[in-house]
Amino acid sequence: MLNLPNALTCANLFSGCIGIVFCFNGDLKSAAYFVILSGIFDFFDGMAARALKIKNSIGKDLDSLADVVSFGFLPGAIMFHLFKASDAPHQYLPYFAFIITLFSALRLAKFNNDTRQTVDFIGLNTPMNTLFIVSLPYVADYHPQVIGNWIVLAAISVVCSYLLISEIKIFSLKFSNFRWSENKIKFVFMILSIALFAWQQFVAIPIILLLYIGLSFVYFRNN
């Protein structure tokens, strides 16, 4: 039970919990950094498990439980606060934001039981979806009327929820080898994403998400 992959998974969970605290203290932008930290831990726990050849049901369940918090509840909470700050006409409307949490949980359950997703994803993965959601407070600095519109927020919530459980094929960033010829699109995506994030930070994430989905179409069309 106590091993490196599980320790990294717990670090993912811990980071998500801290992000939630920042979120409910109204500091949505700081919460975004803990999402990135959770994503880093989530990436390396799987890598460590494969490298150490550790595979058990406890690690798999723990990973999903951590992800429900970091990449399920946290993005729902951020969207909830965005709704509350919007022009929503009803006091209960912000609770609609937690549709993201519900569909994130469904997506994680689907992933755990879908043998088609051992290498790549079917449906948008929860970390990428969460990165998109946490970018919205930053986008609001440039487009306050857009992010402050409850209809836009509701539409984003519905579209993100759909993408999570859709049948759209999305490549993962797992590498069986690092040969350029076999991983060209993945390398291009990583290089462009790093460049965009370095240029515009969190504001670039919506563009990165569109790039991810677009390159996934190209990737699976050619494979």
Strand content: under 5%
Shape: globular
**SS field, number of helical segments:** 9
Overall strand count:
2
Summing up helix and strand content along with how strands pair, one would put the structural category as mainly alpha
- CATH level-four homologous superfamily name: CDP-alcohol phosphotransferase transmembrane (TM) domain
- Could you give the distance between the termini? 38 Å
Membrane topology: Multi-pass membrane protein
Subcellular location: Endomembrane system
Catalytic activity: a CDP-1,2-diacyl-sn-glycerol + L-serine = a 1,2-diacyl-sn-glycero-3-phospho-L-serine + CMP + H(+)
InterPro entries: CDP-alcohol_PTase-I, CDP-diaglyc--ser_O-PTrfase, CDP-OH_P_trans, CDP-OH_PTrfase_TM_dom, CDP_ALCOHOL_P_TRANSF_CS
Please tell me about this protein's structure:
The chain contains nine helices and two strands. The chain has 223 residues and is an all-alpha fold. The chain has a two-stranded antiparallel sheet. Helix 2 runs antiparallel to helix 3 (57-84), helix 3 (57-84) packs antiparallel against helix 4 (99-113) and helix 4 (99-113) runs parallel beside helix 7 (150-165). It is a multi-pass membrane protein. It is found in: Endomembrane system.
